[in-house]
């Protein structure tokens, strides 16, 4: 039970971020989550979209450098301390988190927390056993 995240490598220069988001808009791709990490020369845009496989194909066909990664998504209450509770479980289990980000969902009072870890199965089982609700790609349309 995972979410498909797309990572896109973009040169860090004026207008590239606008070009990227315009490209997605022109192709009717709904961005559900957006995160960017940058350096002086390039950025890595991480997005969760409504049609990940179609989007990756479209991006590659138009010379965007990108890849698809399965990440873990869990629903958490949108209130103070909820993120800390999840991170404490992972810290206690000595789980190394490559990166994480959150976003508020549309139709609930929840937030969605995304994790990139090395052992998806192990971490998914751990979080599920602690009562956290995992979110799959197909669940995103309802959130």
What does this entry look like structurally?
With 143 residues, this protein is α+β, with helices and mostly antiparallel strands. The longest helix is centred in the first third of the chain and has 11 residues, at 16-26. Strands 1, 2, 3, 4, 5, 6 and 7 form a seven-stranded antiparallel β-sheet that branches. The protein is built from four helices and seven strands. The protein has two domains: 3-69, VC0802-like, CATH 3.30.2130.10; 71-138, Alpha-Beta Plaits, CATH 3.30.70.260. It comes from Eubacterium segne. Residues 71-143 form the ACT domain.
Brief description of this entry?
With 143 residues, this protein is an alpha+beta fold. It has four helices and seven strands; from the N terminus they run E-H-E-E-H-E-H-E-E-H-E.
Highlighted features:
2 domains; Alpha-Beta Plaits; alpha+beta; 7-stranded antiparallel β-sheet
CATH topology annotation of the largest domain: Alpha-Beta Plaits
Under the CATH scheme, which class of the largest domain? Alpha Beta
Mind telling me the C-alpha Rg?
Answer: 16 Å
Helix proportion: 25-40%
Q: Ends: how far apart?
A: 16 Å
Taking pLDDT < 50 over at least 5 consecutive residues as the criterion, the unreliable ranges are none
What's the total number of strands?
Answer: 7
Q: What global shape is seen? A: globular
Architecture per CATH nomenclature, i.e. the level-2 architecture of the largest domain: 2-Layer Sandwich
SS element count, helices: 4
CATH fourth-tier homologous superfamily of the largest domain: ACT domain
Q: What share of residues are in beta strands?
A: 35-45%
Domain ACT: 71-143
Protein name: ACT domain-containing protein
Pfam families: ACT_8
InterPro entries: ACT-like_dom_sf (IPR045865), ACT_dom (IPR002912), ACT_dom_pair (IPR045739)
